[in-house]
């Protein structure tokens, strides 16, 4: 069980600038973090919501070591962590440390003196921790309680590209598998290793999602969580990759078709087929444990929930869709949309892509829609073509790949529209509303709150629920080996 | 209400309603995490057949991302013809009701609250 810490690129840049101003002195900051309590490997993820840079009057000459956090700083930020129900992580720089760093004997002794008190101040069973940063490395420990402490596995920085900071570089594996030889020549064995460690959610396994899932299996992604409750029908066969006429005849679940294809392509990929709905809190909880989310459905309800998960758990996400406008039965436009919603960059709600009025209509009964005068037109079946789905799916999967292997450039996270008739791409400026419920700076924002966020999902019918304290207790029990902490898959 | 039958956000909204409307307000879970709310004795315009009626609406499970919409009053509130276009007759939950199609178009989930929503609708009804 090794916890990790996740933070957004902008916060890390500000933290790094503060920790390494070029004076070769030590500097410190305190991170307040939400908590995602279970990953597929059973490890908690700390999600940085607030970065508090400390000045020299709060990072003072130490009684036992070179420097220490002042009691005033710890009391001030400990109280804030308690009030905001966040974990508290102290961090400082080790000047001169590059790609290797470790906690010093003084660091560990300081944790022994201070952390028991910090656990009391922060309260609520929330952890505290300490991290030492090198220029491109991080090492730390997280205290769950006075008796249980765990070495930090890594710090994930979610920006244009994913940065993974560890205590030391990992031994580079030589990929013997010839299937990945050509792609590994582009992003290296390290990149291939990273893909094999990734857990990726694909929500919706129709025309777009089935292609995403196929490409993830080809790339060698380690784990695919595929979610869809729908079945294959004859009209799907023109665009669901891997689907055959027999699937339509048997009304086979779309997730099962995707699983069959992925297993044929890459048996090493773990494929979890969830016949369920993202509005189910247990399904949403499984998505919250992933490293990347593809949203390939066309409902606003799933858009609302996936976007909320991305912002609450700092998980990069991309939503794809294709649209053929044909007012009066005449085609007016054919376009494909690729919309990344990364933490605090491209939030779909800020972009106006989650219209509450349309979302309310989506959930209304036919009778209610009739009363609202929305049933004047017969039900419209939108056109859908595999080539459009393929453009969107490939662009989105490529975005994930560039991000994951560290090749993403500024600008690749803009929302983009592809005009299929002219063949041109249009990039749209990302908008951010500081008062956004999901990504805003407001105290009420759910950004980075992890399991403490209230997701817009239905009430849980299982005892697990979103209750923060209960889930934390389950985690603690599982760490102590007194609970199996099951994760349900169908 | 059993806390497990509605989401935490809906429970907070119900507490706000109860604090503001007291015993005039009642509620029941909608089975998804939202709640049906009934507020009694909401004042109606003098031109209507009744002086007051109940105002009913659902707080959806995805509140506060999505505010309540629409609202309902019983058809025996008897608004005089012609009805405003926001008023539509409908059978809702087995009862003849008038759907009040008013939206909180500038809803801000981090700043607005449920009581403000209801007060806006009540004020609109009174002004008819």
Description:
- The complex is a heterodimer of chains A (490) and B (128).
- Chain A is globular.
- Chain A is built from 13 helices and 19 strands.
- Chain A is α/β, with parallel strands linked by helices.
- A nine-stranded mixed beta sheet of chain A has the order 9-8-7-6-2-3-1-10-11. Chain A has an eight-stranded mixed beta sheet with strand order 14-13-12-15-16-17-18-19, with helices on both faces. In chain A, strands 4-5 form a two-stranded antiparallel ribbon.
- Chain A has two domains: 4-165, Cytidine Deaminase, domain 2, CATH 3.40.140; 178-458, NAD(P)-binding Rossmann-like Domain (Rossmann fold), CATH 3.40.50.
- In chain A, helix 5 packs parallel to helix 7 and helix 5 runs parallel beside helix 12.
- Chain B has 128 residues and is an alpha+beta fold.
- Chain B has a single domain (3-126), classed as Ubiquitin Conjugating Enzyme, CATH 3.10.110.
- In chain B, a hairpin with a 5-residue loop joins strand 1 and strand 2.
- The A-B interface holds A 301, 304-305, 308, 349, 354, 356-357, 359-360, 363, 367-368, 371-373, 435-437, 440, 442, 444-445, 454, 456-459, 465-466 and B 4-9, 29, 32-33, 60-62, 64-67, 69-70, 88-92, 99, 101, 103, 105, 107-111.
């Amino acid at each position: 069980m090794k916890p990790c810490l996740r933070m957004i690129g902008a916060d890390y840049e500000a933290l790094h600038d503060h920790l390494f101003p070029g004076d070769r002195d030590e500097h410190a900051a305190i991170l307040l973090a939400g908590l995602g309590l279970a990953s597929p490997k059973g490890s908690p993820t700390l999600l940085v919501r607030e970065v508090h840079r400390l000045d020299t009057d709060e990072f003072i000459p130490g009684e036992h070591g070179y420097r220490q956090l002042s009691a005033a700083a710890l009391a001030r930020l400990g109280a804030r962590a308690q009030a905001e129900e966040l974990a508290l992580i102290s961090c400082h720089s080790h000047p001169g440390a590059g790609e290797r760093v470790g906690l010093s004997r003084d660091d560990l002794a300081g944790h022994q003196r201070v952390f028991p008190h910090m656990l009391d101040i922060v309260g609520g069973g929330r952890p505290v921790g300490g991290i030492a940063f090198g220029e491109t490395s991080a090492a730390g420990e997280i205290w769950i309680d006075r008796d249980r402490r765990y070495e930090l596995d890594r710090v994930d920085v979610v920006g244009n590209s994913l940065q993974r900071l560890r205590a030391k570089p990992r031994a580079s594996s030589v990929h013997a598998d010839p299937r990945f030889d050509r792609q590994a020549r582009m992003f290296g064995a390290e990149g291939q290793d990273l893909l094999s460690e990734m857990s990726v959610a694909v929500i919706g396994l129709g025309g777009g999602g089935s292609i995403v899932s196929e490409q993830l299996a080809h790339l060698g992604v380690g784990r695919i969580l595929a979610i869809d409750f729908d079945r294959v029908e004859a009209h799907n066969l023109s665009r669901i990759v891997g689907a055959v006429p027999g699937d339509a005849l048997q009304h086979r679940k779309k997730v099962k078709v995707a699983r069959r294809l992925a297993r044929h392509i890459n048996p090493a990929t773990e494929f979890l087929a969830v016949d369920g709905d993202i509005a189910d809190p247990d399904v949403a909880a499984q998505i919250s444990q992933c490293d990347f989310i593809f949203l390939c459905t066309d409902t606003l309800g799933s858009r609302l929930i996936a976007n909320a998960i991305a912002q609450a758990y700092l998980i990069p996400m991309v939503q794809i869709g294709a649209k053929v406008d044909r007012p009066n039965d005449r085609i007016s436009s054919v376009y494909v949309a690729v919309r990344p919603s990364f933490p605090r960059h491209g939030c779909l709600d800020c972009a106006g892509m989650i219209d509450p009025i349309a979302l309310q209509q989506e959930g209304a009964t036919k009778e209610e829609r009739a009363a609202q005068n929305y049933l004047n037109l017969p039900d419209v079946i939108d056109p859908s073509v595999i080539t459009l789905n393929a453009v969107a799916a490939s662009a989105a999967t490529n975005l994930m790949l560039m991000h994951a292997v560290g090749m993403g450039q500024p600008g690749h996270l803009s929302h983009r529209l592809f005009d299929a008739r002219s063949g041109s791409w249009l990039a749209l400026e990302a908008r951010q509303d500081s008062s956004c419920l999901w990504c805003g700076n407001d105290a009420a924002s759910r950004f980075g709150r992890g399991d403490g966020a209230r997701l817009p999902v239905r009430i849980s019918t299982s005892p697990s629920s979103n209750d923060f304290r209960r889930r934390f207790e389950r985690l603690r029990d599982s760490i102590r080996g007194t609970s199996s902490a099951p994760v349900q898959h169908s | 209400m059993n806390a497990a039958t509605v989401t935490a956000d809906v429970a907070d909204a119900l507490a706000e309603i109860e604090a503001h409307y007291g015993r005039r307000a009642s509620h029941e879970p909608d089975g998804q995490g939202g709640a049906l709310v009934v507020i009694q004795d909401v004042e109606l315009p003098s031109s209507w057949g009744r002086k007051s009626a109940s105002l009913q609406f659902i707080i959806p499970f995805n509140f506060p991302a999505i505010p309540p919409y629409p609202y309902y009053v019983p058809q025996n509130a008897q608004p005089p013809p012609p009805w405003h276009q926001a008023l539509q007759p409908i059978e809702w939950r087995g009862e003849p009701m008038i759907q009040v199609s008013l939206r909180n178009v500038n809803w801000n989930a981090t700043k607005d609250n449920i009581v403000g929503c209801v007060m806006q609708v009540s004020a609109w009804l009174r002004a008819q």
